[in-house]
Structure formats: structure tokens, C-alpha cells
Amino acid sequence: MWHDGKETALVAPKAKRIGVYLDQQTGLVCHLLLLTVSPMLSQSSSSPSRASSSCGPGRSWAVRLHAVKAGRSLEQLAQSVAEEVGLENHGQIGQLEAHYLLCQRLENTADVDSALDGNPHVLWHSQEHILRRSKRSLTFNDPKYPSQWHLHNDVKQGMDVNVTGVWERNITGVGITVVVVDDGIQHTLADIQPNYSPEGSYDLNSNDPDPMPHPDGHSDNHHGTRCAGEIAAVSNNSFCAVGLAYGAKVAGIRVLDGPLTDSMEAVAFNKHYQVNDVYSCSWGPDDDGRTVDGPHPLGKAALQHGVIAGRRGFGSIFVVASGNGGQYEDNCNYDGYANSIYTVTIGAVDENGKKPFYAEECASMLAVTFSSGSRQLRSIVTSDWSLQSGTGCTDGHTGTSAAAPLAAGMVALMLQVRPCLSWRDVQHIITYTATQHDADARADWGINGAGFHHSHKYGFGLLNAWRLVNAAKVWESVPFLVSYQSPVLKANEDIPEYPKTLTHTWNVSLSDLRQSGMQTLEHVSVTVTIVHPRRRNVDIRLVCPSGMSSLIGARRSLDVDTTGFTDWTFSTVRCWGERAEGQYTLQITDYKESTLSSGVLKHWKLTLYGSSLSHQQVKERRRVVEDAMGGQYLDRSFALPCPPGIDVPSEIVSPFTSSSLKVCLHMVPSVLLILGVLSPCFRKLTPLGGGA
């Protein structure tokens, strides 16, 4: 439970500032007053010290004495009473005036209670007995819980998700449903069944309501069950392990056990989205170091639709894994799920807090959490299917597939204390609370213009359940999303050979932003079309006005594609919280092979996403978040008001295009639905075009 000392220390410096404002005269008066009072305090606190020693089991009495007669102190009266009944006076009990501890001598066998009953100076007395008290700590009878180092790491301080303090405050994900979009979940398993949500589940491979995985001779379909166990495995059932959000419900959408189409993916992203709060997706395009792919038009539209209409207007939360192609130099900016503004992209670290060999890095990654590492390091202990050769429990869950469900579980804890968090609120809170943990120079940490640390390897840092939940408790919803988009900037220029760089800039002025009201950034996207005979040779960077640089298009040695990029969108979160106005610089370098022709930048486009939060408001939110880290808002009935959620009727919601989305993202869905305004907006949405 490393949350207590570490997090409370964050607010301690506030107390030190009080004395700064005292003038010399006031300070002198206070000093003299302390000199006067301190001997009294010292005397008062030291006088009852004798009562702190024990008399031995069954040989002590607590007594309360009558008011003192003139000329006789309470101490003298207590001494007199003790002698009269054959006991020893061990002094006042703490700071309780007229209450004394009297102890029986070993040789004294007199009836003490009768003697005290008959003493005129004793108002009340009670023989003391040994009380049974235990330290308030969490204990689980699940046999594998002691091996779940990612939940409580007694060996390496700070190398766990820091969740036990949250559990101690009865925050376990109650009332929240996390759906695992995967190859199914074995919901009959002892660790899953009590927390299983059939209402949130479906089998898109077999087109029925039951997402039970099917045994397969070529592939173990246990992936989804393992992810579900990480999130919500039942506690104290004497079976296997404990889920991070063991009070939450878990559902399953079976979609990966067969051919997957764009339409199936779209259905999966929005299936039962008024039941399911968080979608955990531990999958993506091939992690082979040469694939450039992501959601297709229907999948994109479903993600956009989910963050608007899901969860009764507060929006679905999509958590995705960054990918396991690190050993192939793959990068999650070539994964359209991981670089989407609508998802929470999570990478992995091992039990030492280091990036494992398989973990991908990118400028669009939000944060990391724990998973497996090299062979000598531990993997994740979780539930497993019991079909084929499975035992219902495993200590071998690995990859970013294991990291994303842990993040989804932490989001469930956040939603329990603040149900109206939107997908952007969750992204902001992660940005504000993730911790910089690897000080190695190779970790590539940079500090942006808003003071946030970011690394291409670790995002904004390590997820910390204690920090996430405390921040969620005091979080005020961010203003609505606004965007700015440059025109398509035609170039048709050859990309020079390294060390030269092709540089293009675009200036965004305050007048450009005035209509939208954008002041600070969240996501920044660049869409490029580049013709190139060997895609692996291209290096693409974006520099924000603050000077913060993002490697958005990393070189991949296995990517021998001969076509380049066609309207591919890269993104970065490294400029989060910075001022939006200023000059943006695109830098492209060609590590050209002598036998190949030069690449050509055909055209590019800049898109900014942000809000009306000012630079000063970002700083103030950071202060509020840090001030909440002592846990004081979790220990009392403190709650910021949440607007009521509203069910969005399906008949008034059409698929979104990017243009129609901009119109409705400028509105506050819950309020406008109450007023009946949003319905016409949804009706006017244009049918889905060729590219959402």
C-alpha cells in the first residue's frame, strides 16, 4: 500500500507556505505565545505517562472519580482510592480527566469490584480485558493472489498498479461493466460467472447471445477469458486470482474467432453500448513491422458514434493495446486504432518498469502499465479457460494484450467514483496522473510547453490506480471538443537524402482559432500522401509551436512496401495542454538507398483537436489533481454533480462522417438531449461516405 506515504507527500509543501505572510511583529507575538503555552502542553502530555504501561491480563481497572474536594487534587484522590481498595495507581488515562488506571498487585486477591462499588469517590469502574483487534489490511483466499505482483508488489516498491488503497475505500468497480472484445470469454468459469453480464455480451462469429469460446485444434481461444479475469475475476472464492476491478461486471463480445469484416467490427464497437461502459480491445492489425492499417470506414464511424451516443450520452471508453511488434521495430502510429483520438492507447512495461522487447512505441501512446518481460521475469497471473488443456488459471498471460485490460479495470474504478467521465475526461486524467518512472536517458522523456512529461516508449508514464481514482473524484468535465483543420497543403516535392530534411510549415493564428474557441491542444494529427519506392526509409517528424518534437513516422527495417502512404493519418499527444496557436513544422527525411529513386511528398494536412481550456486553467487543474492525492475526497461523501445520462434512441442516430461529427461534437450531448435539441442534429447527419 505504497499510496499512503508517497501520495500524501505531494500536498505537504502547502503547509510550509503559511508562515511566509507573517510580519515581524505578529511573528514575535506568536513566538512568545508558543513559549508560554509549550510548557503547559509539555506538562499536560507527560503527566499520564504511567497509564501507558500494561498491568497484565485481568489485573487492571479503569475508574472515574468524583469531582475533587477543596485542597485535594485528582491525583491525590486517585492515590487514596487505590490504597483503600488495595491497588496501585498507574496514573491518568491519556487526556481523560478524572479517569485513572488502577492495577492489582500479584499477591492481592481481594474482591476489587466490591471494594470499588463501596467507595464514595468512584463514579464508575470497569475491569479491563484483552481486546481482539486486527490491522485493517486486505486479505484474499484466492490461492494465486500472492503471486499477482502487478496488484501488490512487495519486492519492488512502486512496481505495481497501486490499487490496494482504492480497494480499502470500497472502490472496486461496482456498477460498471467492462466488455472484452475478443475471441470470447468462458463465463461459466468460477472466477468469471458471478461477475458475468449476459446483457452486455454477444457472439458475432456465431450470431447468438453466448460468447463462449470454441475449442480449436489450431489456436487456443483463451485470450478473451484471460483478459476478462484480469479485469473482474471474483475475489475470495478460493479459486485462482483477483481482478483489478473485482466488483465490476464483465461481458464478452466474440468476434476474433473467424473472418472479421469492417461491418462486424463496427457492430462490435457499439454492441450493447448502453450496458457496456468500457470496451477492452487487446488486438489490432498485424504486428509485423510492415503493416499500415486500422479501422475502415464503418469501424471509424462506430468509434466516433460510440464516444457520442454510448453510455447514455457520456460516451463509450475504448481501451486499446499499443501492439506487440517491438522486436520488428513496429510502431503504433502505423496502427489506426492506437493513433485514433477516440481511443485510450496503452503500452506495456515489465516488473522492473522497463519497456519489454515486444512493446511498440509511438507518439500517440497515452500511458503504460504492467505485463510480461524477458524469460526470467514474471508474467501476469489471471483466470484462464478450462477447455482443452486449460486449468482455469494461468501465470503466463503476456504482451500488451495483458496491459490493456489492466487499464480498462482502472477506468472502471474511475467511473465508479465519477460516472459521467467522458472518453476525453479519461484521457485528460491519465495525462495528468501518469508517473514518470524510468530515468534512463534512453527512455526519451521530453517536457512539453504545458509541463507534461512524455516518452515515445512510455507515453505520459505509468498508470497508477490511486492517482487515477483520486483525480477522477475531483475532476470537472472538460469543455467540448473543438478542432481546426488546415487546407490540403500541396507540395509535390522530392524528399532529400539524409542528412538533409524536407521542411514544411503551417502557421495557426489566434484569428484562425477564434471561431472554434480552441486555446489548448489535445491530439495533433498529420495526414500525408507520400510516394516512395521503399517505405522503410522514410522518417517523419512534427514539431509543435513550443518546440516539442514528435517522431510520428518511424523507420521500420522490414517495411519494404513500394507505394508509400496514401492519406495516412499520424497523430501525437506530446503537445497536450500546450497553446494551440503558432507554427507547426513537418520534417521528412529519406534514408535513401543508392539504387532507388527519391520519395515525393505529394500533399499533407494538419488537424488540431483541443478545447477552450486556457493555459492557466490547465495549470490550475494540475494543482487541483495533485492536491487530491492524499485521499481525503475518497474518505468522505464528497461528490461533484453529474448531469443525468439520457438514452439516445437508435432511430434518430445515423452513422457519422467526420464532417457531421464536427457539428455534434460542438454540443453537450446530455444537456441538449434533455432539451430535445440534439434529435434534429442526429437526423441531419449525412450517410456514411467513402472515408469517415
UniProtKB/TrEMBL annotation:
Biased composition of type Basic and acidic residues is found at: 211-223
Q: What is its main location?
A: membrane
In its UniProt record, a GO molecular function of this protein is:
serine-type endopeptidase activity
Q: Polar residues bias: where?
A: 194-208
Please give the Gene3D superfamilies that the UniProt record associates with this protein. Answer: Galactose-binding domain-like (2.60.120.260), Peptidase S8, pro-domain (3.30.70.850), Peptidase S8/S53 domain (3.40.50.200)
Give the positions the UniProt entry annotates as the active site: D182, H223, S401
Keyword Signal listed? The answer is yes
List keywords of the entry alphabetically.
Cleavage on pair of basic residues, Glycoprotein, Hydrolase, Membrane, Protease, Serine protease, Signal, Transmembrane, Transmembrane helix, Zymogen
P/Homo B domain: which residues? 477-614
Q: Which residues lie within the region annotated Disordered?
A: 191-223
A GO biological process of this protein is: protein processing
- UniProt keyword Protease present: yes
Listed under GO cellular component are: Golgi membrane; trans-Golgi network
Cell compartments where the protein resides: Membrane
Identify the PROSITE patterns for this entry.
P_HOMO_B (PS51829), SUBTILASE (PS51892), SUBTILASE_HIS (PS00137), SUBTILASE_SER (PS00138)
Q: Name one Pfam family in it.
A: P_proprotein
Q: Which PANTHER family match?
A: PROPROTEIN CONVERTASE SUBTILISIN/KEXIN-RELATED (PTHR42884), PROPROTEIN CONVERTASE SUBTILISIN_KEXIN TYPE 7 (PTHR42884:SF28)
Per the record, the similarity remark reads:
Belongs to the peptidase S8 family.
Name of the featured protein: E3 ubiquitin/ISG15 ligase TRIM25-like
Its lineage opens with:
Eukaryota, Metazoa, Chordata, Craniata, Vertebrata
**What gene does the UniProt entry assign to this protein?**
LOC107750110
